[in-house]
């Protein structure tokens, strides 16, 4: 039983959720099987690891049914029934957390049962709770559409067809805005996967939809009717503009200028998504050689952390985002800041990633301090079970070998690194190009150190002219150390 879906579900819960689950199990409305309660009481003592030998199914069974011979089928049925109750608990918890779903259901029931007072009070509650500062999500226009649809249905049920025109118009408008924002959202993810993981999609059909939309007219109409509606739609529109054209720097500056003063409009989860999207745009611009956006990226990262919108409530910080925040701070010389970030936020990562991330951060910090042996020791402790770490590991190890003048190991790594990049379909063409160029640049440095300077002058010229070169500052420093 130590390894089972039953245990996995319990492991996924916080301590407070486990307490709620216990109350749930003890409620006859939700559970009438007393043995399920007894099993839970036995198992919960071993939270959160649940790795005690006392959780072997034979030992658990003997506590549930003292003096009785072990019955595997009976125990399996008990586990299965328990899991069904657990899943029902999770389903209800999710619905409870989404108060709008409850309010929407209450609107429908109040309308069906002709409870006019309840209906109007619920509409008022929704308008006060879900459309105010701090509660707005990407579903904002969908929520408004739902309310308008409920008001339309209410008037129809009263026989007041003549009063419904305004509700119909609003319903159509809000549904249209919601549809566009949903398209923006998935379009962003597709384009990001194209840029980062070299995924190719047929996105022409989506771009044709956007090209046929009169965004100027939509924004003008929204600005005239509601300042909040205008700001919300404009923020999502600007995110779309930024990802659709990485050369459009003006839209990014406009996005930051409208988002940062108005971030408190949004619910925390939505802020996490928006700030992460802005970071991603800055990163992509940096990859494409616009190094001025490195500071813009770090600025939004710090903004997110300072305002506690770098992760969702009761959730983990994304491993890629953690790595990006650390790398960007270190690249800008914010050593004290990144060390504080690691100590304050490492436990916000999923447990399975914490150890590798700590070794990675220690390796990078040691390299930054020119302690190359220590850096290499930390790298060698990494399990490399995440794709992004494979690239980071090889890049840093190559620089360590160069700093230690271990050119034999460096050349061996160069060959295996090239092979890894060439064969890996998840590396975008832009990133492949940058990585191959970085590897060749280090190879030129090694050749120059060994007396062959045929390509060295060309490397120096390229480093001065091309700001897109990966680890450019380090490479410039290394070329300056080589004497003619």
List the total number of helices: 24
Nearest-integer average pLDDT? 89
Radius of gyration: 29 Å
What string, H for helix and E for strand, traces the elements in order? HHHHHHHHHHHHHHHHHHHHHHHH
Helical content class: over 70%
What would you call the quaternary organization? Answer: single chain
The computed structural class is mainly alpha
Tell me the fraction of residues in β-strands, as a range: under 5%
Residue runs with pLDDT of under 50 for 5 or more positions? none
Largest sheet: none
Distance between the termini: 69 Å
Based on Cα principal axes, name the global outline.
flat
Could you tell me the number of beta strands?
0
Give a structural overview.
The structure is a single chain. The chain has 484 residues and is mainly alpha-helical. Among the domains are: 5-97, no CATH class; 100-129; 386-484, no CATH class. 72% of the residues lie in helices and 0% in strands. The protein contains 24 helices and no strands. The chain has helices at residues 5-11, 15-25, 34-43, 57-64, 72-97, 99-112, 116-129, 140-157, 165-197, 204-211, 215-225, 227-244, 249-259, 268-287, 293-306, 319-331, 335-345, 351-368, 372-380, 387-403, 407-423, 429-449, 456-465, 472-481. It starts with a helix and ends with a helix.
């Amino acid at each position: 039983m130590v390894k089972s879906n039953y245990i996995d579900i319990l492991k996924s819960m916080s301590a407070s959720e486990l307490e709620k689950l216990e109350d749930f199990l003890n409620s006859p409305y939700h559970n009438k099987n007393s043995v399920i309660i007894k099993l839970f009481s036995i198992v919960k003592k071993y939270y959160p690891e649940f790795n005690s030998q006392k959780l072997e199914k034979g030992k658990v069974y003997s506590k549930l049914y003292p003096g009785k011979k072990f019955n595997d089928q009976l125990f399996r049925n008990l586990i299965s029934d328990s899991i069904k109750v657990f899943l029902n608990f999770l389903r209800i918890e999710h619905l409870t957390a989404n108060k709008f779903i409850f309010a929407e259901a209450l609107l429908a029931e109040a309308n069906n049962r002709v409870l006019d007072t309840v209906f109007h009070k619920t509409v008022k509650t929704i308008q006060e709770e879900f459309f105010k500062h701090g509660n707005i999500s990407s579903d904002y226009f969908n929520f408004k559409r739902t309310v308008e649809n409920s008001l339309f249905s209410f008037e129809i049920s009263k026989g007041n067809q003549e009063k419904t025109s305004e509700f119909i118009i609003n319903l159509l408008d809000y549904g249209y805005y919601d549809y566009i924002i949903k398209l923006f959202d998935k379009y962003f993810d597709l384009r990001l996967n194209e840029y980062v993981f070299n995924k190719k999609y047929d996105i022409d059909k989506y771009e044709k939809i956007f090209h046929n939309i009169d965004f100027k007219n939509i924004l003008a109409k929204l600005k005239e009717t509601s300042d909040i509606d205008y700001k919300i739609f404009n923020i999502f529109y600007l995110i779309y503009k930024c990802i659709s054209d990485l050369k459009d720097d003006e839209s990014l500056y406009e996005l930051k200028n409208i988002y940062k003063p108005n971030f408190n409009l949004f619910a925390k989860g939505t802020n996490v998504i928006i700030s992460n999207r802005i970071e991603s745009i800055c990163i992509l611009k940096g990859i494409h050689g616009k190094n001025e956006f490195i500071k813009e990226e770090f600025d939004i990262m710090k903004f997110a952390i300072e305002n506690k919108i770098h992760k969702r409530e009761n959730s983990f910080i994304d491993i890629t985002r953690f790595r990006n925040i650390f790398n960007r701070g270190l690249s800008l010389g914010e050593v004290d800041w990144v060390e504080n970030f690691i100590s304050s936020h490492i436990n916000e990562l999923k447990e399975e990633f914490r150890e590798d991330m700590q070794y990675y951060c220690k390796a990078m910090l040691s390299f930054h301090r020119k302690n190359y042996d220590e850096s290499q020791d930390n790298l060698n402790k990494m399990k490399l079970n995440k794709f992004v770490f494979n690239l980071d590991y090889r890049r840093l190890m190559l620089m360590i070998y160069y700093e230690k003048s271990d050119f034999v190991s460096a050349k061996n790594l160069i060959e295996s690194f090239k092979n890894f990049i060439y064969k890996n379909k998840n590396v975008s063409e832009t990133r492949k190009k940058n990585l191959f160029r970085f590897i060749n640049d280090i190879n030129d440095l090694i050749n120059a150190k060994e007396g062959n300077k045929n390509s060295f002058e060309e490397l120096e010229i390229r480093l001065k002219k091309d700001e897109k070169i990966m680890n450019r500052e380090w490479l410039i420093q290394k070329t300056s150390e080589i004497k003619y």
